[in-house]
């Protein structure tokens, strides 16, 4: 119940003999009033309607009285007692109970209202906060031991409010930092020092005059909690509106540490505590917005979101290095010699043909959606990892895996709901008659199984593939992959594998402008089928990616698969769509790549993005094909379809749908394609930009007429982009196509940054 200024004026006169002008001012939960007495004195009155926690209000007042007896007396409010000498006045007004407190007024400007936080002010803030924490070491009160929604020790309770955040990107970022708190901070909680602290020294609770802190107000969240929480909260808010937020935080932290030594262990969790405080703030704001319209609940919301986005781009190692150095501790980044040692051991223990990306290898230690963090403190935008489909360490997927792994993981000889639930999710996303699933552990294994099924169904062995194709690393998958068997160390083309022309509209036999190009490329498949017939052989299957990956990031020509499938089926063969790199909404226009061609395969192979990095894959067939494969020989896969994998797959599908990532792939991909295409005006090295959604290829050529591949230029570009924080890779038969297949959470801002840096690098290559 809101107390009117008139009623409060009368009450203050009755209980305090105060004749004052009363003006309501902003407050978070309490009702706050500015009092101007007839003697020229300014006071603050805080009013709590019933129900209120009198013991907790008493703790706040006792803390103020305690600090008033220390050198900090001038920087905290003093308590004004009523006529009976009591700090708290309980009274009934108009039938409602209220608890009233009167405090002195502190002069100064809120940090949030200062245009600039000078280094001198930030230093004084750190020093003063350290003095307060030092003084409060001996303060205690029974009421500070309670659940407090603003105590970072209880921050995980704010997970319940995540659903109030309607923006998908914002919700997953807040959820990510809460997950990191759970992983990085919670295991150390009981090793961190505890103390009674202010617990809310943010930019609207700290007053300043020029370069000095004049006061700390509002002890309404005082708590016995981990000491490091107090400085973490303050650092969070001084980082607001800063182009270099870490620099501001370090200035405060250094001064704090000089006054009150922090431990290296406390500093190790500071980055995650800042992220947790921001997540707590934005979830609270979202929850309050759903409940009411008190504008004071939202004053920090925009700044908090901006800082969360900034924090996501800051490598936690960089933050800890800065925090450690500010407090006189060594950096946590390993020396170059340690990386050299790691490479040495790798060469001794790992097969030499397991390659490492980039001339200057990276040791990636952590990921967050489209960002990767190395051990040196650098942040990279992952522009190529289509395995982490919904983003590295997506909290929904991680928690689903954790939860199931802690409950049960076993094989599929037992009934399990998630196996059936996931099978239904997959088959519901596919057209009829694709309705039966087999689960495996990788795309290679799934392609292997798909060929096995097709050979059993058709009683034939021969398979048609596309030239330059890649379908995996198993023995059968390698036999299907000209990229491997025609490459260095390859064993050559097996007699039962037949290569059809790569349907490349840019440099193939039939090019853009030929409306019959798709049908003409398909005739090459018919030619191979005819050749098989003359040798008294049939075809078991035709398999191809529905957009060509290793073949050069190539979208198939219109009607290509429609014509190919017609030829193959007429010969009794099965049509296999390899969706391992393409599916699950990546292309934007559709959920599956084959839908671009208006066809329905007989078998679909799924992998890579299916588990967001968790090893799982699937083969989906028609009921007729499945019945044929049920020939008496059991199909069993120890790990395929296990409960953890199924819950992971369910979570990935849930995220794709609920966060509308297919639509994001479409919009961001189109935006990226426009930006890359504009580069062609100034950079003739770009021969073509092609793709769908976030499946994009940029083919580089030295000559736009001869199409001479731009090698080694492309390698120089990829290395330079890596040095600028963008992870790219190359593909194509001629090794001259930049492939761009980032996690679907890749944003338009990321796309713009990628294009801008690529523009600069291309100018340097000239």
TrEMBL record:
<dbReference type="Pfam" id="PF00202">
    <property type="entry name" value="Aminotran_3"/>
</dbReference>
<dbReference type="GO" id="GO:0008483">
    <property type="term" value="F:transaminase activity"/>
</dbReference>
<dbReference type="InterPro" id="IPR015421">
    <property type="entry name" value="PyrdxlP-dep_Trfase_major"/>
</dbReference>
<keyword id="KW-0808">Transferase</keyword>
<dbReference type="GO" id="GO:0030170">
    <property type="term" value="F:pyridoxal phosphate binding"/>
</dbReference>
<dbReference type="InterPro" id="IPR002575">
    <property type="entry name" value="Aminoglycoside_PTrfase"/>
</dbReference>
<comment type="similarity">
    <text>Belongs to the class-III pyridoxal-phosphate-dependent aminotransferase family.</text>
</comment>
<dbReference type="InterPro" id="IPR011009">
    <property type="entry name" value="Kinase-like_dom_sf"/>
</dbReference>
<keyword id="KW-0032">Aminotransferase</keyword>
<dbReference type="InterPro" id="IPR015424">
    <property type="entry name" value="PyrdxlP-dep_Trfase"/>
</dbReference>
<dbReference type="InterPro" id="IPR015422">
    <property type="entry name" value="PyrdxlP-dep_Trfase_small"/>
</dbReference>
<keyword id="KW-0663">Pyridoxal phosphate</keyword>
<protein>
    <submittedName>
        <fullName>Aminotransferase</fullName>
    </submittedName>
</protein>
<dbReference type="InterPro" id="IPR005814">
    <property type="entry name" value="Aminotrans_3"/>
</dbReference>
<dbReference type="InterPro" id="IPR049704">
    <property type="entry name" value="Aminotrans_3_PPA_site"/>
</dbReference>
<feature type="domain" description="Aminoglycoside phosphotransferase">
    <location>
        <begin position="24"/>
        <end position="260"/>
    </location>
</feature>
<dbReference type="Pfam" id="PF01636">
    <property type="entry name" value="APH"/>
</dbReference>
